[in-house]
Amino acid sequence: MSSRASSPLQKHTVLGTYWMLSKRHPWMFSGVMLTMSLSEVFSIVIPLFYKHFINALVTGNASVHLLVVLILLAVACRAVGWALARVNGTFVALFEPRVVVEAEHLALRHLLDHSVRFFSDTFTGSLVKQVHRFSDGYKTIIENISWNILPILIDVICIVGVLFVRSLIIGAVALVWVVCFSIVNVYITRTKIELNRERARKGSETSGALADVLSNHLNVTLFHAKDRELNYVGRIHEEWRKICQKSWLYSVGGNALQNLLNLITELVVMIGAVFLWHNKQLTVGDFVLLQSYLLSLFSRLSNIGMVTRNCYEAVIDAQEMIDVLNASPDIADVPRAKALTVKKGGVEFREVSFQYHQRPILQNFSLTIAPGEKIALVGPSGAGKSTIVKLLLRLYNLTNGDILIDDQSIGQIKQDSLRDAIAFVPQEAVLFHRSLRENILYGRPDASEAQVVAAAKKAHCHDFIAALPDGYNTLVGERGIKLSGGERQRVAIARAILKNAPILVLDEATSSLDSESEALIQDALRELMQKRTSIVIAHRLSTIRQMDRIVVVEHGHVTDTGSHDELLKRTGKYQTLWGIQAGSFAAT
Questions:
Q1: Distance between CA 13 and CA 23 in Å, rounded?
Q2: What is the crossing angle of helices 168-215 and 284-302, to 10°?
Q3: Do the Cβ atoms of 53 and 285 come closer than 8 Å?
Q4: DSSP type of residue 530
Q5: Which pLDDT tens digit goes with each residue over 444-497?
C-alpha cells in the first residue's frame, strides 16, 4: 500500500526564513545592527556641535578654548562613527557568509528530501540557480538593512526628533515630507520593477528572435526571406524600444517629482526658519543645523527607491526556493517509522500497481523472492522491469499494493535503513566529480584502504586505476566523464561490492562493458551474489543463464517464470527473445 508522511511542514516565507537563519547567531546579528546604529547616531550628533560653534562665533562671546573643544568633539564623533563603521564591517564579514552557507545547506537539505520524480520534472541547472538566488537574496537584504534601511530609519527618527525640539512647525514639515517622499518613491519603484521585468522579457524575446534568424541563415537565404526576417525582428525590437522608453521616462518623471518635493521642502523649511530667526526663535547656528540635516535626509531618502527595488527583487528571486521549502516531499517516512531489520532477505511484491504521470506501468504485480534466491527479470523494453527495482528502493510511492522485506512493509520503515540494506548498480553509472577512492568509498565510507583495493580488484578496475598517474586519487570529472562507460560501470560495481549489503540489485549492470570485461565482471558478480538475495535485470540473456529463476515481465505482469532450460522448452516470450539473440550471436 502507498504510504506518505502526513505531518505538515512548517510554512516558510522569504523574510521569515531569513529571520530564522539570522537569529541563530544573536550576538553577531546584534553586533551588525548595533554598530551601524551607533555609527549613524554619532554622525547625526556632529551638526549639533557645529551649530554651537557657529552661534559662539556670531555672538563673539566664545573663548578659543570653547571653539577648539567643539571642533575636537565634532571630530571625535566622526572618528568614533568611522571606527564603528569598520567594526560593523567586521561583524558583517563574520556573520553574513556564515548565514549564507546555512541558507544554502537549508535549501540543499530540503532538495535532497525530494523524490526521483521531483528531480526528473525539474532542471538541475534551474535548482542550482534557485539555491544561489536564495542565498544571494539574503546577502542583498541584510546588506541593505545594515547599510541603508537602518541608517535611513535612524536619520529620520533622530533628525526629525531634533527638528521638533527646535521647532514644532519645522519638525512637522520635515515629517510630512518624509512620509510623502517615501510613499511616492515606493510607488514609483514598484511600478518601475514591473516595467523592468517587461523590458527584460522583451529583451529575451529579442535575443531569441536574433538567434533563431541567424541559426537559420541558410533557410533565410534559400527562401529569399531577408526582408521578411528583418521586419519580423524589427517588430520585436520596436516593442522592446517602447518599453525601454516608457521605463526611462518613468524614471525621469519619478526623479523630477522627488527633486520637486525636495525643493519645496527646502524652500518651506528655510523660509520658515527665516521668520523664526526674525522672531528670535532660531539662531544662526540653527540654519547650519537645518541645512546639514536636510541635505542628509535628501541624500538618504534619495536611495530609498534603489533600496526598495533591490530588496523587492531579492524577495521575488528567493520565492522560488521558498516554494520548494514549502513543498512536501513525495516520499517521506511515516511517523514513528522503524529501521528495517534484514535477517534472511526475503522480498515479496504483493498486488503492486504503479502509475507514472497517469500512465499505468505495473498492474497487480506479484512476485515472491526467497531469501538468498538469485532471480532475473527479463522482457521487452517498457515492460516495467526497471520500475520494479525502483519501487523496491522506494524511489517512487506505490499506487496500490505493498512490498515487503522479511515481512516488513517498506512503506512503514525508514528509507535510509531500506537503502542501506540494498546494493544497487544502475544501467548507467554516474560518478561524483571526486577521486576514484571517494567514489568507491561512497558505498561504505568507513572502509579501509585494503578493503577499497580488494573491492576494486573483484570488480576488475584495480589495474586501470593503478595505471593512472594519481591512482586512486584521480579525479573522474563531472559525472565520471574522464572514464569510459565500462570503467565507470566497474567503479560502480566496486562500490556495490564494498557496500556488502544483504540484497543486491543489478539493472543492466554489464551493459556498458565489452565482452572481455563482461566475462571478468560476471565472475565477480557470481561471487558477490553468493548468500545474497539478488535481482538482476538484463537484456543480454546469455548473462543470466545461471540464475536460480528467470521471471518474464510483460505489460507490468509476470507472464512466465522458471529456469533458463525450463523457459526454453515453452513457447513464450523468453523463447522468442532467446531465439532473436541466439540468431544475432550466430550472425556475428
A1: 15
A2: 30
A3: yes
A4: T
A5: 888 899 999 998 888 888 888 888 888 888 888 877 788 877 788 888 888 888
User: Are residues 156 and 100 part of one domain?
Assistant: yes
Residue numbers of the domain that contains 288: 14-326
Instruction: Determine the pLDDT at residue 582.
Output: 56
pTM (predicted TM-score): 0.70
Judge if 300 and 385 occupy the same domain: no
- Of 312 and 441, more confident: 441
Asked if the structure places residue 1 within a domain, the reply is no
The secondary element (H helix, E strand) that includes residue 541 is none
CATH number, residue 127: 1.20.1560.10
Instruction: For cell 540653527, name the residue.
Output: 286
- Counting Cα atoms < 13 Å in the Cβ hemisphere of 172 gives 4
- Are 360 and 283 contained in the same domain? no
50 and 128 part of one domain = yes
d(CA 289, CA 415): 68
309 three-class SS: helix
Count the Cβ atoms, other than its own, within 10 Å of residue 15. Answer: 13
Task: Kindly state the cell numbers that stand for 564.
Answer: 533458463
Q: What is the pLDDT of residue 481?
A: 80
Alpha helix (H) ranges present in 459-563? 462-466, 485-499, 515-529
Highest mean pLDDT among 30-44, 204-218, 563-577: 30-44
Spatial neighbors of 263 by CB under 8 A, at least 6 apart, are: none
User: Would you say residue 192 lies in a domain?
Assistant: yes
Cell of 413: 520503515
> How many angstroms separate the CA atoms of 140 and 148, rounded?
11
User: For 277-390, where are the E strands, in sequence order?
Assistant: 347-356, 359-369, 374-378
pLDDT per position as a tens digit, 9-60: 456 788 888 899 998 999 999 999 999 889 888 988 888 888 888 878 877 7
Q: Residue 187 phi/psi, 5° resolution?
A: -60, -45
